[in-house]
Amino acid sequence: MATLPVTLEDVQLAAARIGGAVVHTPCLRSETLSRISKADIWIKFENLQFTASFKERGALNTLLQLTDDERKRGVIAMSAGNHAQGVAYHAGRLGIPATIVMPSFTPNTKVMHTRGHGAKVVLLGDTLAESADEAHRLAATEKLVFVHPYDDPRIIAGQGTIALEMLQDVPELDTLVVPVGGGGMIAGCAVAARGLKPDVKVIGVESAGYSAMRQLLANEPVTVGGDTIAEGIAVRDIGKLPLSIARALVDRVLAVDEVAIERAISLFLEVEKTVAEGAGAAGLAALLAHPQYFTGRKVGLVLCGGNIDTRLLASVLLRGLVRDGRIVRLRLMIGDLPGQLARVAGLIGKSGGNIVEVQHQRLFGSVVAKATELDVTIETRGRDHMRELVAALQAEGFTVRVLEGADA
User: Fold this and answer.
1) Domain 325-404, what fold?
2) Which side of the chain, N or C, has fewer Cβ within a 10 Å radius?
């Protein structure tokens, strides 16, 4: 086999270099997720790093290897968020000036945190590639050291310390599931894991709209694009070094759709009481969407980051409740008579439903003058409970239609 650009020794040296300044995050078994997936599931909580992401590892490993002259000149990076925060935080800690170029679509929380670490932030570009062009231009004109988010052996070795810790804490793991953006993390983890345990399986996960590594490994043309909740792994250009490592050491790369990622974010919060951003939830999404690769195995999931906009998180959680039938909207026809609304509310309450919102419709549409259209948003215990509610209302003579939520 050809010599790879990063070795197990490089990862071990990185671990010694960054030890103490980066959190050795817990790798804990999830009883509930193990039961759901019929596998033995362990989660590496990288969202517990100070900047809530694994990116600190590679950033610090790189910064610590700069020359005195490079430190004085300062560093520049392009990033949609987590690499930016990792570079900004540790550069600030080490007294190295940092400039970060971020795409215009970067979530506000990531921009604010990056500025909060003392970095100069430049918001420019509709894609990561455009931000990269600007970062390279600034690096050349201002003589700054460019810190690449994934295509650098120092970055790859730093990210590989994740797998080193996982196998140190849970040596019996036989499968690692790692989200893939530009490929730095999966490359480092594959080098470390296969170096320590040659028969371990390393599986990558990409969002369906940005499956560049999966396409490249299958020798398909790369087509990516569209909106994704996993902006942290929405990368078109896989790094040359990570790709060469992936070709040698990664078993397969799976794609997951937006609904699967949203479900995984909700599950992490409900089951593990922990916040995952879209990219951080991708591994769990793959576990649920492609169970055939994981059943009966001892699986380590890398929850690689928890930087999600709070408004977006609220939306994901509510959409999840609607999908599960735990929030449902019913449309009823009721007579325009005193006490009818109270009767409906009484029936819903008696059946254990909680009314969240009521809309009365008398004036518009095809409703006859002596009838009223009533839209009721109800919190339920799930699909079966929702069907019981509908049946109870129908038994009392109401015509009921489920507008949103699970199918009745």
Assistant:
1) Alpha-Beta Plaits (3.30.70)
2) N
